[in-house]
């Protein structure tokens, strides 16, 4: 915390009056968990951590920030990877935690919608949907701690994008506190509403730089009668793309998951989580995890999967495959996929890239960029995995064996340049689902056109003229 001025003291006193003194945290022992990023690499500074209980209190805090010209950093579950939800080192901002806004306001199974507050943990939404016989399909590794407000602010993707789309596609309406402290409420749950500009989409993916999302109406779907999971072993990403085409042609929208994982990814998982095992007698260069959600029956789903995988084996697109015979086996296969990031963390520091390229170019991108990265950092180990079905790869780089993390991280800027330039040449994006935050704010200047940047800055200026909303992020 920075030294107090009279104005700062007055501002914090007003915050205590607005939301209660117990929810204005200023002691380092109370604020530490909020100010350090999820990966533990960066700790910012703040005047205080503020914990409002509802939208009205959020609006009061934002009005106070506008009046006293205090920057504000919104935060949900603090699971982001690009420094988007922690303040910088200036110490002149407040961190606005939305974790107390955690009510599910309404569930409408007939309209297939749920109205939720921004601080609701994603897993809780999934459970509430299941309780009324519905599915909320957003699913990602951090679902036990990330919040729907953060998911919306970063337009999170996850494992179900192939069938259900990103978080943007799962949202029908928002409640937002603007930079002036006004409340924009559009929580009607309508699928058709052509009455002017789509203000909702301005705030989704804006990372809290235009306003504070406090609630949303999200889409629900019928629960599938059966979900069948398979793990396929193959040699190359090119074969994985052929398998994707085959599976989509047979399964259409019933194909809800298609995840690519390299052998090194799963070897890391088995190394750091020895209770997990690959279900094959020998190692293979690549693996694909497929999931089929069926509206008929498990027998129908299994027969369809067996047909697809049988043809893949006959056509030499795959070397081996296993279809989960039970829910426990399905969870074990998914656990292999979901444990990759944690296994990377146990292995040591690494340089992460959340990129997307056109699906048809993924195999060529991997082959080309692997060579370029090896030239830049000989001996480095590629941890490549991700959502092949929607073109999103987590193209991560671990240091060579025996090289200290600190020495390797000194090459981060050079390696980022190699990877991101390659992404650009392949017509891709340097951020697929994690956002820009502070980490990629300068990087994006190389790849966005001047027209795009000018329009983005014009929107920022119009909606946040004092430049107080999550400063130093995105732009």
TrEMBL record:
Q: Short name of one Pfam family for this protein?
A: FAD_binding_4
Limits of the FAD-binding PCMH-type domain? 42-223
Kindly give the InterPro entries that the UniProt entry links to this protein: FAD-bd_oxidored_4_C, FAD-bd_PCMH, FAD-bd_PCMH-like_sf, FAD-bd_PCMH_sub1, FAD-bd_PCMH_sub2, FAD-linked_Oxase-like_C, FAD-oxidored/transferase_4, Oxid_FAD_bind_N
Coiled-coil segments: none
Q: Which domain of life is it from?
A: Bacteria
Against PROSITE patterns, the record matches this protein to: FAD_PCMH (PS51387)
Which controlled-vocabulary keywords does the entry list? FAD, Flavoprotein
What's this protein's family per the entry? Belongs to the FAD-binding oxidoreductase/transferase type 4 family.
Protein name per Swiss-Prot or TrEMBL: FAD/FMN-containing dehydrogenase
Taxonomic lineage is:
Bacteria, Pseudomonadati, Pseudomonadota, Betaproteobacteria, Burkholderiales
